[in-house]
Each structure stands twice: as structure tokens, then as C-alpha cells.
Amino acid sequence: MREIAYQRATQVRDALTAVANDAGARYLGGGTNLVDLMKGGIEQPTRLVDVRRLPLDGVREHADGGGLVIGATTSNSDLAAHPEVRRRFPALTQAVLAGASGQLRNMATVAGNLLQRTRCGYFAQLSHACNKRVPGSGCAAIEGIHHNHAVLGHSRHCVATHPSDMAVALAAFDAVVHYETLDGVGEIPLSQFYTPVGDSPDRETLLPAGALVTSVALPASAVSPRSRYRKVRERASYAFATVSVAAALDMRDGEVRDARIALGGIASRPWRARSAEALLRGARPTPERVRAAAEEALGEAEPLRDNAYKVALAINLVDAVLSELAGTENDR
Ligand code: SF4
Prior knowledge:
Blueprint: E1 5-8, H1 12-20, E2 25-28, H2 34-39, E3 47-50, E4 59-61, E5 68-71, H3 76-81, H4 83-88, H5 90-97, H6 102-107, H7 110-115, H8 166-172, E6 176-181, E7 184-189, H9 190-193, E8 212-218, E9 227-232, E10 243-252, E11 255-264, E12 271-272, H10 274-280, H11 287-297, H12 309-326
Parallel strand pairs: 1-3, 2-3
Antiparallel strand pairs: 4-5, 5-8, 6-7, 6-8, 9-10, 10-11, 11-12
Helix pairs in contact: 5-8, 10-11, 11-12
The structure holds iron/sulfur cluster.
């Protein structure tokens, strides 16, 4: 039996100080991922600093006008149900509701969702080599069971995917993560928040040590109201994405003024397909153009031995979502 100190913080500075003073401390939000990892011995914190009572809950209008600010401890359920999120960023609501179960969404926080760890089975089993868990130990997935691992953005050191649905929609909408440390406040665009795998898969984000995520800002957007999130998974009840797509189109006079495409379930981080978006801007979204954009989105894919199916699946899913948004799904 190991002892774990528990404290409930009511001020951000108290939480930051508690974590700064104990190298083994972890912030505790809803605990829907961290507690599971503790049960398996993957995480062994000496102190849990409960952040659920911090004044970081709720969704509000951005002070600069336009856009929303989502408090870090807002529950996934409250985020999905917020009327302005539903109206202005429907793909975000759809993404959140596609993740986990109602009970888990009631507990899980926005920051916890972004910072959840991969569900690679080898990461969760101490008996297997895993560079993400123990740097330099190897990667059991590369020659092992990897049909649901990455086809983009992986390295020979790790081929795991990021499990968040919410982060995929946030990536499509150019969200910005705000954080605080004892030295002050900072912000990181979500597109840069998750670090490329490279040779250090144990390092997953650009957050400074001890930083506490305080909010996520969603800039005002003409493209976001016409958006969709679709997810393919291995079973109808809750499961992590095999492939998912968050897409949005802003149309004027039959042409695409702006397009957003982000993919989940295929890389170590939400995968924004900017070159595919560029193929659509200023063009009529004909079936041929949409198909070309979908193929471009997966153009750099490097599937593993057993997951080439994901490339075709992702192309078809991007094609289907864009066609639905463009209103051309019956034109082929
Ligand atoms: Fe670990 Fe990544 Fe390899 Fe999975 S894919 S075993 S998380 S190093």
C-alpha cells in the first residue's frame, strides 16, 4: 500500500504551489484517465491536487468580442450542451458526444480531455516495452498488435494515437490553450500544443513543467457553424476512434471561401490537413475536387504492417463529411 497525499485547491496559485513543491504531484480533474493509470501502476503520484473547485468552470464570451472561452474544469457534458457551442461550433459538440459515455463525460474536464494519455495497450501494461512510459525501452507495438495505431506523424520510437475526439474539433477551429505557472500566464495554439513524436514520445505537449491549463479559447469563425464531426469506431457503444474527421465549410455563391479538415485516430496528435483545405478554398466543391482533397489529406500516410485499411477509411470519411457539408453527397 502506498500513501498518496490529497489536497483540494480553491485558488490557482495554491494548486501551482502544491505541484511545484512536490515532484511526484499530479493535478486531479475528473480522474477518468489518471485514476485508471494509477490502478495499473502506470502513474504513481505522491500527491493529488484536486482542481475541480478552482474558479475555472464554464463557457463565456471572449472579452475581445466573438469567440468563446472554455474554462479548463468545465465538464465534457456541460461543454457539449452549451447553447453557443452547439450553435457556433456544432462539430465540437458532436465530437464531445462521440467520446466516452454519459457518466464519464459528466466527470471528465476539458483540460483532462486534452491531456489524456494514449490508449495503446502496451503503454498500459508494465510488462511490455514502451518508450512513452519508459524512455529508451523500445516499442512493443511496432512488431506487435497495431491495427489501431498511427498512419501519420509517427516515428520508429512510437506509433500510438491520441485518443481525444474533442481535440480534433478544437484543432479544426484554431483553438488556443491558455495556462498558468508560478512565473505567469502563457498560451499555445492547439496546432502546436502536442509535440511531434520524434525520439521522445514521453514528452507529449509544450506545456512547461508544473503548468496548469486554465482555459481553451475558440476564436470567432465564419466557417465553424457549418461543421461536422464523424467518427468510425470498432463498436457502437463507446470506443476510441479508429478514424474521425472534424470538417467545416464556409460557402458563398457555390464556392468554398474557407475549409477546415482535422483528423483523429490516425496520429499522435489531432492531424490538421492544411494542404487539403487549400485545395478547396476558392473552388467549387465538385465530387472530383472533394475526392482530391480527401486523398491529399492522407497524402503523407505511412501505414504500418496491419493498418493500411485506415488510409482508405480516412479518405472515404473525409470525402463523405465534406460532401455532406457541400450538399453534394448525392451527386456521384
Ligand atoms: Fe509505447 Fe508508443 Fe510503442 Fe505504444 S506505440 S508501446 S505507447 S512507444
